[in-house]
């Protein structure tokens, strides 16, 4: 569909902006908000590896800073020769913070993709629905 195609293109473009001098492993993310806005993110590495930010979390943080809290889909583009690359655990938890029933497309630079959902990436998740506030 044209919406997914557009997200694939944008994810690929922002992947080219990644700051990854250590791993040489660029990743791009294109996030579609519930109101149809597009928010992008790419990985930003740091000499202190633990401070590296993944593309998915950069996109989510950019979206939140723009006032978005509800998402429809995210495309994550990275290159793994023979398989699709899923988000790391921290990114899966960050995605789950904003709902379990939205689409995740794991994409390669050739635009081939695998469609899944946040709930499938992090089953039995710890999410806001899990936490009971007083």
From TrEMBL:
EC annotation from Swiss-Prot or TrEMBL: 3.5.4.5
Catalytic residues of the enzyme: 56
UniProt GO MF annotations: cytidine deaminase activity; identical protein binding; zinc ion binding
Coiled coil: none
Keywords: Hydrolase, Metal-binding, Zinc
UniProt: substrate binding residues: 43-49
Protein family according to the UniProt entry: Belongs to the cytidine and deoxycytidylate deaminase family.
Name of this protein: Cytidine deaminase
């Amino acid at each position: 569909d044209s919406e997914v195609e557009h997200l694939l293109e944008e994810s690929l473009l922002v992947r080219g902006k990644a700051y990854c001098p250590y791993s040489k492993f660029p990743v791009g993310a294109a996030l579609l908000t519930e109101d149809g806005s597009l928010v992008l993110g790419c990985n930003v590495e740091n000499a202190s590896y633990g401070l590296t930010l993944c593309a998915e979390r950069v996109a989510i943080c950019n979206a939140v800073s723009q006032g978005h809290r509800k998402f429809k889909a995210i495309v994550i583009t990275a290159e793994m020769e023979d398989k699709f690359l899923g988000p790391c655990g921290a990114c899966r938890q960050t995605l789950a913070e904003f709902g379990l029933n939205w689409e995740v497309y794991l994409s390669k630079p050739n635009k081939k993709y695998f469609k899944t959902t946040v709930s499938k990436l992090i089953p039995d998740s710890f999410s806001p629905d899990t936490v009971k506030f007083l």
